[in-house]
């Protein structure tokens, strides 16, 4: 948010007029970047939701795919949080794929009715899973300072976190 369009143009190796021509402002530029990055995860999840996976299987796959997306794009959670907390964020929020979460909740409700998992509050559950995945990336400077981890060690921590979060999910859904 502190960057100027000129700074962005300089980093991209183009002139500012060209950047303004295609994106008009930083918010439009960010929306385009977010759409491209979200296209990496959300279509995969939509595809998985069309198959006959259980809720637990879907969540395990989501956790793995989301952590890998964040490893490739570690600043994405902070960008999204910053953007959705702006006063003029209605257009951006409308572009978020809330239909995926709604479908996940429907699968959860079906699995609860069939006795595959215990009843949990779907909103709290999804907030917990999203937070457990995204928070370490937003807190990376603090985590690496405290642990003295380098980038490779942080990546290994996040890879091991996939199984750790999946284990939490198992406890939440079965105990």
What does this structure look like?
The chain is an all-alpha fold and 175 residues long. It has ten helices and no strands. Helix 1 (5-12) crosses helix 2 and helix 3 runs antiparallel to helix 4. The termini are far apart.
Question: What is the compact description of this entry?
Answer:
The chain is built from 10 helices and no strands. By secondary structure, the chain is mostly helical. The longest helix has 24 residues.
List the helices and strands and how they pair.
Blueprint (H helix, E strand, L loop, with lengths): L4 H8 L3 H8 L2 H24 L5 H18 L3 H9 L5 H6 L2 H16 L8 H17 L1 H8 L3 H24 L1
Helix pairs in contact: 1-2, 3-4, 3-5, 4-7, 4-8, 4-10, 8-10
Mean pLDDT: 87
List the helices and strands in order: HHHHHHHHHH
Q: What percentage of residues falls in helices of 4 or more residues?
A: over 70%
Biggest β-sheet description: none
Spatial gap, N to C terminus: 44 Å
The number of helices is: 10
Strand percentage, roughly? Answer: under 5%
Number of strands: 0
Which word captures the global form?
globular
What value does the Rg take, in angstroms?
A: 19 Å
Please identify the structural class as seen in this structure: mainly alpha
Which consecutive residue ranges, at least 5 long each, have pLDDT under 50?
none
Structural descriptors:
175 residues; mainly alpha
């Amino acid at each position: 948010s502190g960057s100027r369009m000129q700074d962005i143009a300089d980093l991209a190796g183009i002139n500012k007029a060209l950047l303004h021509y295609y994106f008009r402002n930083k918010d439009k530029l960010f929306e385009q970047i977010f759409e491209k990055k979200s296209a990496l995860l959300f279509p995969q999840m939509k595809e998985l939701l069309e198959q006959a996976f259980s809720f637990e299987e879907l969540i395990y796959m989501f956790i793995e795919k989301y952590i890998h997306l964040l490893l490739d794009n570690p600043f994405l959670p902070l960008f999204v949080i910053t953007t959705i907390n702006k006063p003029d964020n209605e257009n951006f929020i409308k572009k978020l794929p809330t239909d995926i979460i709604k479908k996940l909740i429907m699968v959860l409700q079906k699995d609860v009715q069939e006795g595959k998992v215990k009843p949990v509050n779907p909103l709290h559950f999804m907030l917990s899973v999203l937070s457990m995945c995204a928070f370490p990336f937003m807190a990376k400077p603090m985590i690496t300072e405290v642990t003295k981890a380098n980038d490779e060690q942080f990546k290994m921590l996040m890879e091991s976190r996939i199984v750790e979060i999946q284990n939490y999910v198992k406890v939440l859904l079965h105990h």
